[in-house]
Every structure is written in C-alpha cells, then in structure tokens.
What does this fold into?
Amino acid sequence: MSTQNAYATPAADAKLAPFSIERRTPGPDDVKIDILYCGVCHSDIHQARNEWGNSVFPMVPGHEIVGRITEVGAHVTNFKVGDLAGVGCFVDSCRTCAACEAGEEQFCSTGMVGTYNGQEKDGSPTYGGYSTDIVVDQKYTLHVSEKLDIKGVAPLLCAGITTYSPLRHWKVGKGQKVAVVGLGGLGHMAVKFAVSFGAEVTVLSTSAGKEADARKLGAHQFAITKDAAQMKELQGKFDFILNTISAQHDYNEYLNLLTLNGTMVVVGVPPQPSLVAAFSLIFGRKSLAGSLIGGIRETQEMLDYCAEHNITSDVEMIDIKDINEAYERMLKNDVKYRFVIDLVSLKN
Ligand code: NAP
Ligand code: ZN
Ligand code: ZN
It folds into this structure.
C-alpha cells in the first residue's frame, strides 16, 4: 500500500478538501500511473453532492485521468514504465458477461467498477483522479499518444467517449443535420466530433455569449433555446439531437425539433426525471434513446481518432485548491469548455 495526497468530499453538503488515501501495491496485471492531469466532469458534481442518490463518502472524484506509468506488474505486456496512459470512468468489470465479452464493459451485467464512488472486487472503495497516483489493471488502461497536448486529452476519457460513442452508434455523418444541446464539456466535444464526421451542426444553448465559440468549434448554426421564435423556426429540422443538459428540462421541446424518423439521444443526467408526451414521439415516428460513456475498445478507438485528426478538448487549467470554485462556475454554465486540474498542485 502507499499513502497519497488527494482531495475528497466527506459529505453531500461539504466542500472538497485535502485528504489522504491508500492505493494498493501494483499486482501482476496492474500499472501505476503518476497522474498529471484530471478533467472535471459534471458527473463529479452530481456525485459529490449525492444528486443521483448513490454516493458513498468520503469521495475522491475524477474520471478523466492522464498520466505517466511509473510501475508495471510482472504480467503487464501492453504498457511500459514511461508510457503516457489514460483512465476513464471505470477500472474493472466482471469480464465474462455478454457486454464485457463484446467490449462494452460500461454495460456489464453485474455493474462496472466505477473509477470512484465504486467498489473493487475485494470490497474496498475506489478513489478517482483528484489524487497523485492511481493503480489500475492494464485491461482498463488506455494508450495515450505523445502527439497531442495531454492537458486537452484528459477530458476525452469521459466527455470525449460519451459523445463519440453515440455519434458512431447512430452513424452520424455527411448529409445529416445534427443539433448539440448544451455547450459545456460534453457539448463542445460533440460539436468537434459531429463536424469532423461531416454533419451539419447546430448548437442549441441557453447562453447567448457562447455563439462565437460555437462557430469557432465548427458549428454551422447557433440558436438560443430560451427564444421561442428561434425554437419554432427549428421545428422538424434535425435528423439527430445529442442532449447534454445537466439540469432539469423538458425533453418534449427538443423532440419537437426532430424530423421524420429522427432520434434524440440523451447523455446528460439531470437528477429529476422528465415527462415525455406520446404525441412528441408518435407524430414523425421519433426515437428517444440514451447512451453511457463507451467501452475500452471504443475509447481507445476514439483516442486514436483524436490523435490522427488533432482533436483535443478546450481546457481551462486549475490548481486543485480551486476545485470548489470550479464547481460553482460550472453550475453557472461558465467554463470554456472543461476545467482540468494540474496535479502538480497536489504533489508538494
Ligand atoms: P457541463 O460542462 O456543466 O455542461 C452542461 C451544459 O448544459 C451547460 O454548459 C449548459 O449549456 C447546459 N445547461 C445547464 N443547465 C441547463 C438548464 N437548466 N437548461 C438548459 N441547459 C442547461 O456538464 P458536462 O460535464 O458536459 O455534463 C453534462 C451532463 O452529462 C451531466 O449531467 C453529466 O453528469 C452527464 N454525463 C453523462 C455521461 C454519460 O455517460 N451519459 C457521461 C458524462 C457526463 P449552455 O450554456 O450552452 O446552455
Ligand atoms: Zn464524466
Ligand atoms: Zn460484465
């Protein structure tokens, strides 16, 4: 075991503060990673504040982890000391169910082991990337290219794969009109991927101040969802909508924007449910679906695609001591477009 610096929250209504955690000594299949950067996902806020009702405290959040390997176990063949590596939202799963065998470990029938707010198979709690190092089985560790700025790679481990996976699954590309709802961490990656796949992309936002950024990210159109006239004009216009909104909202307003046979995929996870009217679906034979991160194989595919196409997240760097303020800013939709913690700030 080794003792490490981390930041944890002791309870749903408390702030994050310095905390000590124990990491296991690497086993034969494990790698130990010196964490360099960790992105701040809105799921960190939902869970730190127990908004989904499944939180275990103390909690060390963080599942957008990039760092360098400092130790490898005797059976590790895929990685060597000094390699860049990434860890996303889960660090283990049953490995034998149909989903695991298909490489979609996020849908493991016994439940994936979350990178934090989870439980290892021996019952010990998992702690995430707001810490100096992490020990992970090589099977659940990703290769990270030396070609990209790794500060902007960290958010790919959640925001990247969560948007890449549904765009691929629903075969979004050339000739399709796509709307991305919510321009935050997930939304800005969705715009980059959808544009890269050849779709015509519209950003639907509550923040008028984000229009210029949306266009810089590659979006072709921008509309303000609070403006009833703009929403009316967009009715029936989109083949595919990726909904990344983190707070309570009305799904029907967005379903109305789909064209015949259109699909809205929900990736945002507001704590409160939304009522869906049958009329929002039956006229136009519309589909409402959801998507959860992505498996290890597809996450590696996404990282390789980003290295090839020079895609990274737009980041605002913070020290770990600024994490509570970063949460408050995210809740005001004020981040451009992902906070990333420089873990040097936890190492002294
Ligand atoms: P984020 O950076 O905070 O972005 C969320 C965006 O949603 C905001 O920037 C804002 O965009 C929009 N928004 C916020 N409140 C709104 C409201 N009341 N009405 C309408 N729009 C609103 O969050 P994120 O990290 O991208 O995460 C987004 C959601 O996805 C969270 O719920 C998170 O837990 C979830 N998530 C799901 C998965 C998955 O696997 N399905 C993975 C990761 C995260 P505008 O300013 O443009 O309006
Ligand atoms: Zn996340
Ligand atoms: Zn499984």
